[in-house]
């Protein structure tokens, strides 16, 4: 995937993830049913702005023991991978256990390691713990809150993953916040700001109408009709 200009990434950070999805729908109808997470997720710090960055993918497992040398080697390979390339990075980790989140990969230690390596956050179907001591400014959007780490370890690195219906490949552009996450295709990135503007203008007519003191069905009807005419 080609690198997106930082000016565009800054534009995307101004909007929540539902706004991004709504706007992508105007460019490609597939975004009505795919390319985003479809389950409720835990957002550790809702005060942080949306995270926008390039996916660094991996899978984890925690339900059974593994040789410590193997675990260490996989971890080091993952850390090297997740900090390589053009930042900003977002770790996108699929927990492949039968019970995802049984053991947490994310807590005080890994949030600090990743933050120091230039990773701005994580999107995972797994669990997070140590909520009160996570690295400041590092965003965690997870499937659940957990307690133990069990036998958690990296399984594979840099492979396609699926997080609650969202298919992600290495270096995909990710937008995520408290609502969930979506993949922004590189080929749509330059068109997206225009689509955002169009979507906001369409909604504004209806929102402004609904705030009128004399609002009624006829005013709503006209607002919906006028909104549909905006291009």
User: What are the secondary-structure elements, in order, as H or E?
Assistant: HHEEHEHEEEEEEEEEHH
Label the CATH architecture of the largest domain.
3-Layer(bba) Sandwich
If helices are DSSP runs of H or I spanning 4 or more residues, what is the number of helices?
A: 6
> Given the C-alpha coordinates, what overall shape results?
elongated
Uncertain runs are none
CATH fold topology of the largest domain: Glucose Oxidase, domain 1
* Main beta sheet: 8 strands, mixed
The portion of residues assigned to helices is 25-40%
What is the CATH homologous superfamily assignment of the largest domain? Ribonuclease E inhibitor RraA/RraA-like
The counted number of beta strands is 12
Q: Kindly report how far apart the N and C termini lie.
A: 30 Å
Strand portion: 15-25%
Give the rounded overall mean pLDDT. 96
Radius of gyration: 20 Å
Overall tally of domains: 2
Q: Which CATH top level class of the largest domain fits? A: Alpha Beta
SS content category: alpha/beta
Which features does this protein show?
231 residues, alpha/beta, Glucose Oxidase, domain 1, 2 domains, 8-stranded mixed beta sheet, 6 helices, 12 strands, elongated
